[in-house]
Design goal:
This protein is α/β, with parallel strands linked by helices and about 325 residues long. Helices cover about 40% and strands about 20% of the residues. It is built from 11 helices and 12 strands. Helix 1 crosses helix 3, helix 2 runs antiparallel to helix 4 and helix 3 packs antiparallel against helix 4.
Length: about 325
């Protein structure tokens, strides 16, 4: 933990009167729930606080308590003193365009960060940004209410894949233990995160999984979704972020390539990997980016050709010596 950075952030928050919290584009559970926890922390300190994300909240996080607090859109250019950016490698990752004049607090647990903030707290050893927020709440002396505890616990469960992903660490369990003691309900959080799918989402899951293909080596799974699949079920792409989970559970799989049609002959490929398979390295090779086990890139061309060539290239990248 960077004690100097957390001390600076605590001091700035105490000095600030109007604080806005924002997340990265296509927000995930860690950034969404941590944002809500920091909102209630700020309110407990008597601050005028808000949470504003550029993109809407995806399923299932649109069912969590207090979600109505989050506004969707752009942060006004002159309403706040300070902006806290969660898990944003750079300002463009937030999608916000009116925050240049704001004092910026950059909090992230990924190594790929541009250190663009007026205060930068980047800790790749942290299991989730929620674990960092927990330390900040303690530093500020704010009481961890059941409400704050629930949001931080939800963030950790989400980001660790219910304690299954590679970012699961002793810290994950230590902080979760403390949050449960403060009132977080594991049963309620699990029910919200994992038992809230719509019939349309399950239908889409079936359609996408029916496209499953394996490469010759048997270490790469390929699934596909076309725009018509979403349109027919009245869903948005943001509702599909967790579809790779089942495909990644296949024995001996290194990586899943999820082809998503975004325009005619244009596909965004979401990568989810495990073990030593480096999704970020693969994505960067194709002009994209991301994290060790979750990344993505965009390609254009004939689908039939792409679905043959891309997996072959990915396999070579993963096994190059």
């Amino acid at each position: 933990m960077n004690n100097k950075a957390i001390d600076q952030i605590a001091k700035k928050i105490r000095e600030s009167q109007k604080i806005v919290i924002t997340s990265h584009l296509r927000p995930d559970g860690d950034s969404i729930c941590t944002g809500l926890a920091l909102y209630f922390m700020s309110k407990a300190l008597g601050k005028d606080a808000a949470v504003i994300n550029k993109d809407r909240t995806p399923v299932p996080f649109n069912h969590i308590p207090d979600i109505e607090i989050i506004d969707v859109g752009l942060i006004p250019p002159d309403r706040f003193d300070t902006v806290i950016l969660l898990e944003c490698a750079n300002i463009s990752r937030s999608g916000q365009i009116h925050i240049d004049e704001y004092f910026k607090i950059n909090i992230d647990h990924h190594h790929s960060n541009d250190y663009y903030g007026d205060i930068n707290w980047v800790d790749p050893d942290a299991a989730a940004v929620a674990c960092m927020a927990y330390e900040l709440v303690l530093k500020l002396g704010v009481e961890i209410t059941p409400q704050i505890a629930s949001h931080l616990y939800c963030a950790i469960v989400s980001d660790t894949g219910s304690f299954q992903f590679s970012n699961t660490k002793a810290q994950s369990f230590k902080v979760s233990y403390e949050l449960i003691k403060k009132g977080a309900s594991p049963i309620h959080v699990s029910e919200t995160l994992f038992n809230n799918n719509s019939p349309e989402k399950i239908k889409l899951l079936g359609q996408v999984l029916s496209t499953l293909k394996m490469n010759r080596r048997g270490n790469i799974a390929i699934i596909t979704m076309f725009k018509r699949d979403l349109a027919n079920l009245k869903l948005k792409e943001i509702d599909t972020e967790d579809i790779t989970t089942l495909a990644r559970s296949i024995k001996d799989i290194d990586i899943v390539l999820f082809f998503k049609e975004v325009d005619e002959n244009t596909f965004r490929i979401s990568l989810r990997s495990k073990g030593d398979a480096n999704s970020a390295m693969v994505a960067e090779h194709f002009g994209g980016g991301g994290h060790l086990h979750a990344a993505g890139f965009t390609v254009s061309g004939n689908f039939t050709k792409l679905i043959e060539e891309i997996p072959e290239s990915v396999d070579k990248l993963l096994h190059k010596t």
